[in-house]
Amino acid sequence: MRFVIVTGLSGAGKSEAMKALEDIGFYCVDNLPPTLITKFAQLCYQPTSLIEKIALGIDIRGRRFFKDLNDSLDKLLELGYEYEILFLDCEDEVLVKRYKMTRRNHPLSSENSILEGIKKERQMLEDLKEKSSHIINTTNMSIKDLKEEISQIYSSEDKKSFITISIVSFGFKHGIPLDADLVFDVRFLPNPYYIKELKEKTGEQEEVRTYVMNSPISVEFFEKLKDMVEFLIPQYILEGKRHLVIAIGCTGGRHRSVTIAHLLYNYLKEKGYKLLKKHRDHTLS
User: Fold this and answer.
1) Which domains does the chain possess?
2) 77-127 pLDDT, tens digit each
3) Which 3 state secondary structure label does DSSP give 6?
4) Burial class of residue 186 (count of CB atoms within 10 Å of its CB; 0-12, 13-18, 19+)
5) Rounded CA gap, 193 and 208, in Å?
6) How many of the other CB atoms lie within 10 Å of CB of 178?
7) What's the pLDDT score for residue 136?
8) CA distance 45 to 138
9) Which of 1, 87, 127, 273 could tie 132 with a disulfide, CB 3.0–4.6 Å?
10) Which residue positions form the known binding site for GTP?
11) Residues 6+ away with beta carbon under 8 Å from 36
12) Does Cell membrane count among this protein's keywords (predicted)?
């Protein structure tokens, strides 16, 4: 069981941190009153529980309960429940700018003094910050940077397991798949349709694939395609994308697109990605 308490300064990025943890498989509960932490942990640590990773968001919005947090944390340790604290920090000047951009008041501000509220909150959280397992300063971070940082700290899995890739072959004459993220047109490759003994076959058969790939252009294209997807997939993972659809199209969707989809599937499978394969139009005339 991994039990993470996410806290820190208001406006420092706690909500985005919770989203990032949820993306990598954490069961997330935001703004749980500290007095309920122990009871919640007892439920999650039961042998019948299916939850393996938990993130609790605690912030100053629950300030009337906040004084109970230290007691709850001590109780967790007494019961043998290990926990980690992720603390989100940020420079005062940047926090003020963020509040002004969103036109929101700080939860502890009085007479519209945002900076005063930030200073009060920083004092209240000082002891908790000292107990933190990890401190992330988001002053110069984008949301993408924060997601990557959290992924590096809390993910024990290969990043390739974060995303499922669907490889779909199709025929342009039947329309482009509506859910495609990437579309590659392979209508320039040698076409088995005009070879009598191959016309009624599909790219799922070895003789068709051999014909399509028996060309320097086909070989060069596939090498460039591999380079392209190997570059793009990690970028999609960093952006938090969980499902990527790569569509390969030829005229009818029977020969060339099926061939390239088949080869790309095998290539990415060897790289360890989670994959799905679909030949949408290969049985159509």
Assistant:
1) 2-156 (3.40.50.300), 160-279 (no CATH)
2) 888 888 899 999 999 889 888 888 876 777 777 666 888 888 888 888 888
3) strand
4) buried
5) 10
6) 7
7) 92
8) 32
9) 87
10) 59-62
11) none
12) no
Longest CA–CA span in the chain (Å) reads 83
- Share in percent of the chain as helix, strand, coil (round to 5): 45, 20, 35
Give the chain's count of helices (H) and strands (E): 11, 9
Question: Exposure pattern of 9-33 as b/e (b: 16+ CB <10 Å)?
Answer: bbbbbbebbbbbbebbebebbeebe
Burial (CB < 10 A; 0-12, 13-18, 19+), residue 263, is: buried
Q: For residue 108, give both structure tokens.
A: 């502890």
Report how far residue 96's alpha carbon sits from residue 55's, in angstroms, rounded to the nearest whole number.
Answer: 27
- Quick check: 6 and 53 in contact, CB under 8 A? no
Q: Which residues are annotated as a binding site for ATP?
A: 8-15
Query: Does the pLDDT value for residue 252 go beyond 60?
Result: yes
In this predicted model, what pLDDT tens digit does every residue of 137-146 receive, in sequence order? Answer: 998 888 888 8
User: What backbone phi and psi angles, to 5 degrees, belong to 243?
Assistant: -140, 125
Q: At what angle do helices 206-213 and 216-238 cross, to 10 degrees?
A: 100
**61 or 85, which is more confident:** 85
Buried-state track 189-221, b at ≥16 Cβ within 10 A, e below 16: bbbbeeeeebeebbbbbeebbebbbeeeebeeb
